[in-house]
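Dear colleagues,

As part of the handover before I leave the project, I'm documenting each prediction I ran so the next person doesn't have to rerun anything. This entry is a single chain, and its sequence is reproduced below.
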Amino acid sequence: RAHGLKGGLLGNWSVGGVTVFQSGLPFRVTDSLGASAYGTPIPNTATPSLAPGATLSSALTSGSIEQRLTGYLNPAAFIPSPVVGIDGSTGFGSLGRNVFRGPLQQNWDMSLAKAWTVSEAQTLKFSADFFDVWNHPVFDKPSITDIENPSFGQITNTVGTPRLVQFSLRYAF
């Protein structure tokens, strides 16, 4: 164990961190023109169907999340709610509720601290805390999930906060 100046500079350091990886938030795809056969449509309740030959996997586009911000979902993989009335009114599609998930979310937090003993009953501790240490953006699920909207499948929001650094100094006696 080092003493004096060397011990004061090199001793009593601590490093800590928390890393979280989680799947993206679930979301549903809707058809704002669907379910008209049932009276006044209730927003975000009618769902479309998958196009013939399409699967849940093929409805997702490929590439990095940054490349998919303007098209997280493939519009060609969906067809509108079916026409059920002779007046052109529509029913419900077959796509289930919340069958898709947004992008993977990850967060890395880190702490670096140094403690000094002032006397037997007194300590001084300096800490630097880094939240989102790598400053990675965490993208939300698509904000436009209505197949009738020209901006269908776009991701326009992030979740969480960008990198945040916090310093603290604590004197305990």
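The CA atoms of residues 91 and 125 lie 65 Å apart. The two ends are 24 Å apart (CA to CA).

All the best with the project,
I.
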